[in-house]
Amino acid sequence: MNYVGTESKAQLVPAEHPIFEGISNDRLRSLMMVIVGCDVFPSGVKNIGLLTLARTVSLFRSSSLDSPTYNEAALVERLVAMLKKEFKPILIKEASEVSREEAEAVADGEAEEIANTLIDALVYEPTNKVDMNKTYLGGVEPAQLFKYCDEFAVATTQVKQGPVILKCKGVGGKDHNFLAACGHSLCGKCNHVICTHCQMTIDMNGTRIFCLLCGATELLVPDIGTEAAISIDIRRQRLLDVHQFTGANDLDSDEVEDVLEMMDFLRDYRAQVDTVHFPLYKTAEMETMTTKWEDDAEIDFSGGGAFIADGTINQRHIPHILHFCAAVATFSLPDEKHTQWQKDKAIYDALPKLIIDFAGNARVDSGYRLLSRCLRHALDSKCPTLENSTATLILHENEIGIHINSPIPASMRKNTVYNSGIVFTATKVLCCKCNCQCGSQGEDRVVCVHNFPLIFLLLLLLMDALAESMLMEYAACMRSDIWDQTIWSEEDIIGMKKSILTLAAAAGEDVNSIYFNEFSIDALIDKFETGTEGRKKWKQRCKSKPKPGDHCCIEHIAKFESTATEGKRRTSRKQTNINLVNPESIILNYC
């Protein structure tokens, strides 16, 4: 402020995040600058801003308020790891000819070199412009530099090869070097290498990448035969013939180009609707006497699995009902990948395979947002369980499914509850409805974020007590004369054994690695033949409120879980090696 004129009204405002406060190490300061973005690395590390960096730095600060000190060695190690993480995926991809382990080791070393190169580019940039007698920050000449910074060297500096360097075409005939790991492309016209700062895209999708010179030329004088070179008259006619845009003749040349580009984009976007399979039917089918599926029986969840034995269900449907409930409680194998990420998010461990598959077929992308919102809404403390709800079993193309309606609270609006409903089988989402702004109503065919929570609530109910209650009722019926077991085929028997195993695992039973086909259904259900105590617990759970002693003070809670972590915990099996997808290899331990 000493250099500001006396007439100035400028004020010195304290930094909101004083990340350099108490840090005098020039290399550490430079590392922090590279992470948040500076002239040697303008983009900085993705998803790390001043607030995140300030919080990270504070973890290594002493508790002294007067003169805080830092564990600089540990802080440098943490920050370098954050910076290396930005480059390692690109370096691993380039090392595709070796094994994954070798590629990761090589990428780690190269990322370390890149981090030091960027730091050196800040620390050792001369403080003057004299070629022979360079001066440096702190008066210290560089003893060693990588080739990328060789222009900063003096006669005594050892220059090593270091990271891969490419030459960008630049602008106006002035090329420049850049680090390959920072990203690059080829110009779609001249085929020269261009860095991320010397390129431009022409179309809305960002697929046509040009250097700045070729991009400007393409905008003004497009190549003959390309899309951009089509005459305005032909474009105007395309608006009339292809898009039925009746006002095309009233547009000037610039408006014709803009409107046609927008209409082509909308056409391509709407064409993706064909790739979205679920739901199969419009919401109106849930509100009328539909012919798309057949109602089989109404069930009351407050009675547990009693609907299995109450006589309202066709005995031939029993194997299919068990299969459907087992499908809801089936999870992916531990090593199964769902995304291209290095490690899948915890959401994929918390949700059953059925919901993951449904989400992928209900969106043009992977449906990740549907999955994350499914957990958020289902695990909301305001969201009611299904314990006292009713549902309808349905029959659709020889598959058993269920029709569930239940309120789902809004996550961002207080006291707002949406009336959500879904009809689904083990393989298909038939119909959805919700009265939220994005929900499916009338002639719509949409899955919104409030539909899949109903499936997850059914899973929680199965794992809580419904699966055990169903198996107890099933065991009782198998031991009596209620059912004519001769009407079930061998395929039905095998299917029921698989379903019993999956439901038993969902109920919390221990599982061993023994082939299940060595045992009969009678052996599998022996565990659930005596179910008096289980029925008592189920009825008590449905009607009783938790006791005060069941709660704890908020100060005793160590930390709040994310919905993904809570969902994973709530749906975890007793043994981590349980395979619910391929139940042929496992059997309940009834010993």
Can you tell me about this structure?
The protein is α+β, with helices and mostly antiparallel strands. The protein contains 17 helices and 15 strands. The chain starts with 25 loop residues before the first helix and ends with a strand.
Shape: globular
The Rg value, from CA coordinates, equals 32 Å
Query: Structural class given helices, strands, pairing?
Result: alpha+beta
Spatial arrangement of strands, main beta sheet: 9-10-11-12-13
Total of helices: 17
Summarize the amount of helix as a percent range. 25-40%
In angstroms, what separates the terminal alpha carbons? 82 Å
Number of strands: 15
Largest sheet report: 5 strands, antiparallel
Summarize model confidence as the mean pLDDT: 84
Beta-strand residue fraction: 5-15%
Poorly predicted runs of 5 or more residues:
554-558, 574-591
Secondary structure blueprint with pairings:
Layout: H1 26-36, H2 50-58, H3 72-94, H4 100-123, E1 144-146, E2 158-160, E3 165-171, E4 174-179, E5 184-186, E6 193-195, E7 199-201, E8 209-211, H5 212-220, H6 232-241, H7 253-271, H8 284-287, E9 294-300, H9 318-328, H10 347-350, H11 353-360, H12 368-378, E10 390-396, E11 399-409, E12 417-425, E13 429-434, H13 452-478, H14 490-506, E14 511-512, H15 521-525, H16 532-543, H17 563-570, E15 587-588
Helix pairs in contact: 1-3, 1-4, 3-4, 6-7, 9-14, 12-13, 13-14
Keywords:
591 residues, 17 helices, disordered C terminus, five-stranded antiparallel beta sheet, 15 strands, single chain, alpha+beta, two-stranded parallel sheet
Short description:
This protein has helices spanning 26-36, 50-58, 72-94, 100-123, 212-220, 232-241, 253-271, 284-287, 318-328, 347-350, 353-360, 368-378, 452-478, 490-506, 521-525, 532-543, 563-570, and strands at 144-146, 158-160, 165-171, 174-179, 184-186, 193-195, 199-201, 209-211, 294-300, 390-396, 399-409, 417-425, 429-434, 511-512, 587-588. The chain is α+β, with helices and mostly antiparallel strands and 591 residues long.
